[in-house]
Structure formats: C-alpha cells, structure tokens
TrEMBL record:
The lineage of its organism: Bacteria, Bacillati, Actinomycetota, Actinomycetes, Kitasatosporales. One of its GO terms (cellular component) is cytosol. CDD domains: cytidine_deaminase (cd01283). Keywords: Hydrolase, Metal-binding, Zinc. This is Cytidine deaminase.
Length: 133
C-alpha cells in the first residue's frame, strides 16, 4: 500500500468531537499488517492520563483480530485551517509498537508522502543490553 493510500485511509477516520474541554478523534491512524489487513483507530484525550493515541487504538483492533505484526503505520492530524499533517509516533507509541511483536522493530513508519523510516531508526538503542563485566 502506498503512503498516499495509507494517509488517505487515516484521514477518513478523523472526526473530531469535543467532550467538555477534551477532544476525541482529531488524530487518526491506520496500519497494515504483514498479512495485508488494515486496522484503524483514533485518539482519545481524557483527563488524568487515561486517554490513548490513535496508534494504540489501531493496534488494539489488530490484536483483537489476533494479528501482531505491523508492516506499515501512519498517523494524521488536521489543524483548524484544514491543513493535514503526518505525525510521527510519540515515544510511548514507538515502544508499544515494538512490544506487541519484536519483529515490529522493522515496521515502516510513514513520515510524509515520500518519507518513511523503520521503527528501528526511530527507536535507537532498543536492544536488550549486555551484562556488565
């Protein structure tokens, strides 16, 4: 799946909704598994740190379907003027992707229409350390 196709799929799930001073669904994420299946999710901003990122929601849908290996992932956000942005996964999401399946260290992360990086590149020093002498 091309970056543009994945970006468009993520844009399609973005539907911001305010609840009090919180905003739900303003970031959308879509991932494609190594089996070629697509899963999507949106962010949920709640108080006291109980919310989660769009990538987490997409990964939860994937795991619910008993898949664990992410081939490619993207997250998008639209500002108040209507401009779209591709968002790199935050540090928590990077570690979450890695821990769902160790092979996900080679997941392709979309950073723009023509730009990607592997999770390995975005999460340096990810190997278990050697014991001290």
């Amino acid at each position: 799946m091309s970056n543009d196709e994945l970006i468009a799929a993520a844009q399609a799930v973005v539907h911001p909704h305010k609840v009090g001073d919180r905003l739900f669904g303003d970031v959308g994420s879509v991932l494609v598994t190594d089996a070629g299946n697509l899963y999507s999710g949106v962010c949920i901003d709640t108080g006291s740190g109980t919310g989660f990122c769009a990538e987490h929601a997409a990964i939860a849908a994937m795991v619910t379907a008993r898949e664990y290996r992410i081939a490619k992932v993207v997250a998008v956000w639209r500002d108040d003027e209507g401009a779209w942005y591709v968002l790199p996964p935050c540090g928590r999401c990077r570690e979450f992707i890695r821990q769902v399946d160790w092979a996900n260290i080679d997941t392709e992360v979309v950073l723009g229409r023509t730009r990607t990086a592997t999770l390995r590149e975005l999460l340096p020093a990810n190997e278990w350390p050697d014991p001290l002498d």
